Predict the structure.
Amino acid sequence: MKKRNFLFLLFCFLFLVFAACSNNSVNSGPDNGTAGSGENQDSEAGKENNEDQEDEKDYYQTPEMDFDMGGKTIKWVSWYDEAIQEDNPDSIQKKEILDALMEKHNFQIEYVIVDYAEYADKVTSSLLAGQPIGDIIRLARPWMIPTLTKQDLFWPVDEYTDNDHVFLQQYTDNYSQFEGKGYGFRAGILGASSGIFYNRTLMDSLGMSPLQGYVDEDNWNWETFIEVAKKANKDTNNDGKLDTWGLATASLLVQALAANDANLAVENKQNLEDQKTIEALNFLSQLSTEDVARPTEGGDWTEPAQFFREGNTLMYAGSDYEMDSFKEDMPDYDIGFLPFPKGPSAKGYSSHNTIPNYLTIPKTVEHPEQLLYIYEKMNDIESIYDYPQQNSFETLFSNEEDIENAKLAGETINVVDKEEAYPSMPFYEFQGEILEGTSVTTVVEKYKEPFQSAIDEVWKQ
């Protein structure tokens, strides 16, 4: 009996010793960065270790890794130059970190630029041939999902993007999702803030209440938007014709869908009959049938912006970066910016994106975790700015309210799928019939099958 008790106590003592040794070991990540179940265990242990060090960082960071890339040149492919420009203190920090990483891990980076007009074809051809033109390749979602992704041509990156101080989770968890895995990653900003530019000078001359008040009162919605537009439709010289208008165009289907958390397609199904989509279509129909917007004069897609530049149109739907050209072309006018008004089913203000893009790593590239590690570390800086787009917004906008509106509009960006994702989708014909006054019910019934056919062409090939 005593012997049995002794053996039991000895076993407990050895168990405690082994447990203590295991807990005290330092997890610095796999030496060679190879993937596998052992790496996953190391990663989880690293997360716990990192979370315990709250005095250093209040967010998760991938534990330090030790690897030698043997002088490899990483080819980073995009349709624009993605080299760090060192044009502000943040980018200088990033470049210094990258230089240190290159020395420590023994690699170089070559930034490869491919013309946008040829980009999708060249990248796709190289991937299908098993010889991708780069190790890190920027891709737009419609170019890879589902056609290329279902051929197992990319590494999923979910397990490497937990650092939300660097990685925009929406791009991995939403925009690049396919069959439960995320294949894209991105740092920086979600995208451009889209909303409503408005002419404060014209607003004042028409004796209208400041439009900012609607946002301040949380009452900037489709109903108040239409009211404002109608108030600005005036015949100021009493010649029987309108000479000021409230809205540059009624062709706002994409903006309306995004502003109501709606989409024309959900994965591999058309979504025209969804209530949120119907609400967006009814809004578009109201703009048309009630003559809310300035009528077209037969111009192309640039016509609405040209109308706004004339100074006699109150509102124009556009994106933040257009402010530079408005300031240059309209020096005598005070131009403001508002988020696009909220739809009835929306939780908040939203911007739109029809072709989200992000970085990917081809499956033929070895050690994707090393590339993600390098990308994370070079972007994991303490910014001198109060928010990601401070430098840009303070350059574009001189009014603090406009800056806050641009920040608000960019907090959520909803993707709207149309012909970029589904080439056979009759998007413009569909929108055109709504704008011509055909009832929403009739248009939905007519186009739901053509929309589904266009979606099937992509998902079932």
